[in-house]
Amino acid sequence: MSRDTGDNLDRNHSGNLPMTSVMDAYLSRRSMLRGSLGAAIAMIAASGLGGCLDSSAAASESPSGPSPHTPKQTKLALDFTSIPGSRTDACVVAAGYSAYVLAPWGTPLNSAASPWQADGSNSATDQANAMGMHHDGMHFFPIEGSSEDGLLAINFEYIDQAALHPNGPTRDANGKRPAEEVRKEINAHGAGVVRLRKVDGRWQVVDNDPLNRRFTSASRMALSGPLRGTDHVRTRYSADGTHCRGTNNNCGNGFTPWGTYLTCEENWPGIFVNKGSRPEDQRRIGVGTSSGQFGWESAAGDSTEVADEFARFDVTAHAASATDDYRNEASTYGYIVEIDPYDSSTLATKRTALGRMRHEGCCPGLAVPGKPLVWYMGDDSNNEYLYKWVSEAVWDSADAHPADRLQTGAKYLDHGNLYVARFDADGSGAWLLLDVDSVTTGGGTLGELYGDLPGIILNTRGAADAVGATPMDRPEWTAVNPLNGDAYLTLTNNSVRTPHQVDAANPRGPNRHGHIIRWHDSDDQLSLRWDIFVFGANAGATADINRSGLTELNQFASPDGMRFDSRGVLWFETDNSEPSVADYTNDQLLAVIPTDLVDARGNPLPLNAHNQTALRRFFVGPNGCEVTGITFTPDNRTLFVNIQHPANWPATDRATDAAPAGVTLRPRAATVVIQRDDGGAIGTG
Ligand code: FEO
Ligand code: CA
Ligand code: CA
Fold this sequence. Notes:
Distance between the termini: 32 Å
Bound molecules: MU-OXO-diiron, calcium ion
Number of domains: 1
Strand content: 25-35%
Structural class: alpha+beta
Radius of gyration: 24 Å
Oligomer: single chain
């Protein structure tokens, strides 16, 4: 998210900023890198991870050197024409496709919710039983493998108070927020699961389906992993530190090979206030000191308040002990949260082992039997880091269909190692372990700084500072190529990086347009090889800004949401307000097939002036919006994306319709369903 409640401030004062001189080293090693990435792909093919490389060639290759063979070329090719930019109150999609509005904010999920009212008058109870606000990350979970019947697990990232209430937010003469308004705001956040079914070719919500459910900023959840049961998370609500309430600012997402959804808590620090002395982790993550961003804590003491539902947002220590107040409430936020969409009797579970930060997304690597599972995670603020989780247990494909999905989640997500990335100027990199024996750049250990693993996790950012991770240009989503295991990270922009603070992996300062970095991990998960896949830019920019040679037909800025489909097409979305591109087009969805970009020897290439036509604009959203969230049905014939914070949309159930001139709508974020008019697969026929 970027509008209204965005907080991407630079709170990294670690000094982990390499010198400008690394640029020369970066530029001089680029040709070497291409060979090395080729070797990495050859290695993965040889080890059985590759899905499409020529098996006879792969079997004869050494994992230690560049491939002497040209990998078998995939026949996959984009078959749509890149569309121009658009700046209207309607969506635009490539020729031959249609786009429909599905499940906008306020759509009832069950009969406890009244239909959505255009005057903003729906109650807090309605909101708890309906689609939340500002759709973001999502994942389609098929029912018995179907591409016409499934569950959409979806995030509701934040709220637009002006649209949520009839006349915007109110306060009484003493500055207190009304309890009903606060409850409605709490209930508009979080995540949800909604049953979808395709009927006569069109997707629709299955009202009252028993699997429909909402998770709000008040829902009871379980704590799992290293923080569970520790002093850090004991509260008046859960004296034994095993449970907590709510999830908030759920931005990007992930999923698991055993059929669960991962929702990621991003800009949650804003909902809390600490008017006393903030502990170091709260300073580093950005918990405020004067009031919560919505003033939820101001409703405390209302005659209708139940179980401290408002008081818990004031995390000031004021009672005799932690189990008498909510000083630890913020320590129950900042995690990856696992949800079993197929069993509505289960609690959402916070997997604390995966670190505490402003989590953006959590994309899995390839699941290979006998190897650990990995997930990649960005921490979206200026100069924050890229993280990786590596499970202790190795993947057993029998776990793909377990009797108890959350028990399987505990197996792979509660025990393992958390790493943070360092990108070196020569195209190599290291995954730095965050554990008690990890050596800091100061020569001590993380154990000496933070005591134990729970202490390290509580201040994950601080631990990453201490081991010398590379500060990045706002890490957003990650994506993994199903064809070769290459991982990608959107670095959306960084307005505070100066020309003197650039490094090889973040080479523009300030970085107003963002870029996408790509890497391949070593088999032992401890090192990586990387390159920059594409630089965002306006077409008319200087060569130093427009380093990928983009044109009007694919210029973009601020890449954010991103996903590979199962065929190896990389789709990425933008969340841009940089005028040089925003004056040309609203936010958009672009596509490219990275494995098609190779040199004469078959080594992978980044996008550049000679091959940039491979990057095509597929979809543009309406004025004011961000295009985010992306998932496909198993047959790739339906693409779901989300339109978040539109200005004056949707007008009808066709996403490409605009409101008549002069008509002002109460805006509603919504999922957009894109289908090919001939019924074929999206993007490649
Ligand atoms: Fe919620 Fe980093 O975007
Ligand atoms: Ca963003
Ligand atoms: Ca985002």
